[in-house]
Write a structure and sequence with these properties.
Structural class of chain A: alpha+beta
Largest interface: A-B, 49 and 50 residues
Number of strands of chain A: 6
Oligomer: homodimer
Chain lengths: 181, 181
């Protein structure tokens, strides 16, 4: 279990689910919002790995990486639910997966399911950040702390994708109430 | 997306999360209850596959299966959260996984994570059932409908485990309320 450094006491259950899940975030968002979730791609480009990135992904400096920045939102609503950045070593992508990732607005969890890719997820970091540009994107005041987590989707014992998901601490902030037995 | 045949309109978000997730149910329960979740094994035995079971698991009739029945509960509370039955073809288990599954009270999601097993989950069925014996186990009236789902954990393109999870429709029944942006 990843420590959230005291963060957890202040977080709602929906926020903790989004930060802790090892399943599809899209599915989770669809259940939480009760509506279909779609991806809007903000940026999609092939970049060369710098030293840090190469170490994180266990590739060689200069190797090609697909860098994708998306926003997850409800299909009938232009408000951002979650901002997600992903880094994928191109050489590790099967042809069909590469097409889905680079040419189409498909959430990664859905690509994995459709392509029947076996994987596991390891959470690397959960933190709070400040970021004025992202606050503008989410249309919240610039001093609102953001909640963020970074995790790896691992397949064939290699990092297939490193993802950082971010959302304002004011999103999904109400309590989950429920009966246990 | 699996259809729930009109079920979903009556279900709370927590119930829908438990029925729809493709991640660890233990992690989900820990976040929903806010407390550590443990497994209590009710039954653990090796059985021979009958015709139906052999078809479901894509093995030969008569092959050995590990049949495990557990209850997930909070560590400090003897009330059952979820009842889970699992069928695992013995021949598909690595030695360490077999030990964890057959000799120890460890949730399957946690075994998969600890043993770094790459997999995917496919939901086969979501339904309501009536079962007096299970109602007694959950300490609810015998006419309370139970919610149940059956899914496969697939690894190396084979069904590693078929799991059926069940809980009363009165568990996790309150609404999740939250702010979206």
């Amino acid at each position: 279990m990843i420590h959230m450094e005291g963060l957890d006491v202040k977080l709602s259950k929906a926020q903790r689910l989004l930060l802790m899940t090892d399943g599809s975030v899209t599915t989770l968002l669809e259940v939480l919002t009760g509506k279909p979730v779609v991806v809007t791609t903000l940026l999609q480009q092939v970049v060369k790995a710098d030293t840090d990135r190469a170490v994180n992904l266990d590739i060689t400096e200069g190797d090609s990486i697909n860098y994708r920045v998306v926003v997850l939102m409800n299909e009938d609503d232009d408000r951002a639910l979650i901002h997600a950045e992903s880094y994928t070593p191109i050489a590790r992508l099967q042809k069909e997966f590469r097409h889905d990732l680079m040419k189409a607005d498909i959430p990664i969890g859905r690509i994995l399911a459709q392509r029947k890719i076996e994987s596991r997820r390891e959470i690397r970091r959960i933190e709070t950040t400040l970021n004025e540009e992202l606050c503008d994107l989410f249309n919240v005041p610039r001093d609102i702390p953001l909640l963020s987590r970074t995790y790896d989707i691992i397949s064939n014992c290699m990092v297939l994708i490193r993802i950082t998901e971010t959302f304002p601490s004011t999103n999904f902030s109400k309590k989950i109430v429920m009966d246990i037995p």
